[in-house]
Specification:
CATH topology: TIM Barrel
Radius of gyration: 20 Å
Helix content: 40-55%
Largest sheet: 7 strands, parallel
Oligomer: single chain
Number of domains: 1
Number of strands: 10
Shape: globular
CATH class: Alpha Beta
Strand content: 5-15%
Number of helices: 13
Distance between the termini: 18 Å
Strand order of the largest sheet: 1-10-9-8-7-6-4
Structural class: alpha/beta
Order of helices and strands: EHEEHHHEHEHEHEHEHHEHHEH
CATH architecture: Alpha-Beta Barrel
C-alpha cells in the first residue's frame, strides 16, 4: 500500500510507549483505543525496553546500570560476526541474527498473537529508535558518543535496517499493510554548532534505514526541528502538535508538497502529561481544526487534509501514570470521533 492509497481520515494511532508492564493488558488497551493498532513498548517493565530494545546482539554493547556503553575492544572483536549475519541475510534472507526477542519486546510478540483481531485493521504500526537519538546517547570507551566513530555509526545504521526488516516481516504476518516509524527525539540537537553531527549526516543515516522499509515509512519527532528535510523523505510524519503546531506550520510550502503527494500527518494533539486532565475533546478538536484552516488557506483542499490526517496522543505516555494514559487514550478517540462525525469520514 502506498501513501496515496492510504486513507487516514482522522483515525487514531499511538507512538509506542505505555505505562503498563503486562503485555496482554497493554495490547488490550491499544486495541480498544487505536484504529491503527501498534505494538506497545513497556518502558516500566525493564530497561531492555528503552535504549537496548533494538540493539540486542549489537557488537560491543555493555549495559552499566541503566546506561549503555560500547566497549571498543569488544566491538572490534564482535564486528566481523555481526557483518556475517548481514551477509547471511543478503544471500539467504535469514534474519535470525536480528530478531527482537520476547525478552526485549514482549509487547511485540503478544501483539502478533492477536492476528485474528488485527487482520481487519487498515494497517498495523511498529517503531524503532532512531540512529541520532541512540548514537548521541550511547558512548564508546573513550567517553564520546558512538555516532562520532564512523565504523560504529555504520554498524548502528545497519543494525537498525535489519531490526526494521525483521519487525516489518513479523507484522506482515498479521496484516499486509504496515507502517514503521523511526522515533527520533534528538533531531533538534543536530542544529547545535557544538554537536559535530549535522543534517546531511542525519539525512544519510535516516535514508538508509527508511530504504529498508517496504510499507509506509514514518518518522516521529517530539521536539521542534527542521521539518522540510524529513517531509521529503517519508510517507508519514508524527509530531507534538499540542506544543509545536505553530512551528511546524511555518514550513507551509514543504507541508503543502508533502500532502499533495499523499503524505500523512500524525497530529499529536492530546498531551501525555497531567495537562490531559485539563483538556476537553471539543477544545482539542477546535485547536486542530484551527490548524486545518491554515492548511486550507494555503490552497490545500479540505478533503486532502482530512484524508491525510491521523490523531494521536503526544509521546511519553510510558513514563506517566496509567490514569494519564487512559485519559489520553479516551480523549484521542473522542477527538477523532468529533472530527469524523463533523466531516462524515468513514
Amino acid at each position: 500500500m502506498s501513501a496515496m492509497e492510504f486513507e487516514a481520515n482522522c483515525l487514531t494511532t499511538g507512538i509506542g510507549s505505555v505505562p503498563w508492564t503486562d503485555a496482554a493488558v497493554a495490547c488490550e488497551q491499544v486495541l480498544a483505543h487505536a484504529d491503527i493498532p501498534y505494538w506497545p513498548q513497556l518502558y516500566r517493565r525493564s530497561f531492555n525496553e528503552s535504549l537496548p530494545q533494538f540493539f540486542e546482539g549489537f557488537p560491543g554493547l555493555v549495559v552499566e546500570g541503566e546506561s549503555l556503553v560500547i566497549d571498543s575492544d569488544l566491538f572490534a572483536r564482535e564486528l566481523e560476526p555481526f557483518y556475517q549475519k548481514i551477509i547471511d541475510f543478503e544471500s539467504r534472507g535469514t534474519l535470525e541474527g536480528f530478531a527482537i526477542s520476547e525478552g526485549y519486546a514482549p509487547g511485540l510478540h503478544h501483539f502478533v498473537e492477536l492476528k485474528d483481531r488485527l487482520q481487519a485493521a487498515k494497517a498495523v504500526k511498529g517503531q524503532i529508535v532512531g540512529p541520532v537519538s541512540f548514537g548521541l546517547s550511547v558512548t564508546a570507551s573513550d567517553g564520546r558518543p558512538m555516532i562520532y566513530d564512523e565504523t560504529m555509526r555504520e554498524a548502528l545504521v545497519r543494525n537498525l535496517q535489519m531490526k526494521a526488516v525483521y519487525q516489518e516481516r513479523l507484522l506482515r504476518t498479521v496484516n499486509p499493510d504496515t507502517m514503521i516509524f523511526i522515533d527520533e527525539s534528538s533531531l533538534d540537537r543536530i542544529y547545535s554548532p557544538f554537536i559535530g553531527y549535522d543534517e546531511a549526516q542525519a539525512r544519510q543515516d535516516l535514508a538508509a534505514i527508511l530504504a529498508a522499509i517496504k510499507g509506509l515509512k514514518g518518522v516521529h519527532c517530539c521536539t521542534n526541528t527542521n521539518w522540510p528535510f524529513l517531509l521529503e523523505m517519508i510517507d508519514v510524519i508524527s509530531f507534538d502538535a499540542f506544543r509545536y503546531s505553530g512551528e511546524f506550520m511555518m514550513h507551509h510550502a514543504a507541508i503543502k508538497k508533502f500532502l499533495e503527494r499523499g503524505g500523512v500527518i500524525t497530529w499529536g494533539i492530546v498531551p501525555a502529561s497531567e495537562d490531559v486532565f485539563h483538556e476537553t475533546a471539543a477544545g482539542l478538536a477546535n485547536r486542530l481544526e484551527a490548524v486545518f484552516q491554515s492548511l486550507y488557506s494555503l490552497g490545500i483542499g479540505q478533503a486532502a487534509v482530512l484524508k491525510n490526517s491521523l490523531v494521536t496522543p503526544v509521546c511519553g505516555l510510558g513514563t506517566g501514570s496509567v490514569q494519564t494514559a487512559l485519559r489520553a487514550f479516551e480523549l484521542t478517540k473522542e477527538v477523532s470521533a468529533l472530527l469524523r462525525r463533523e466531516y462524515s469520514l468513514r
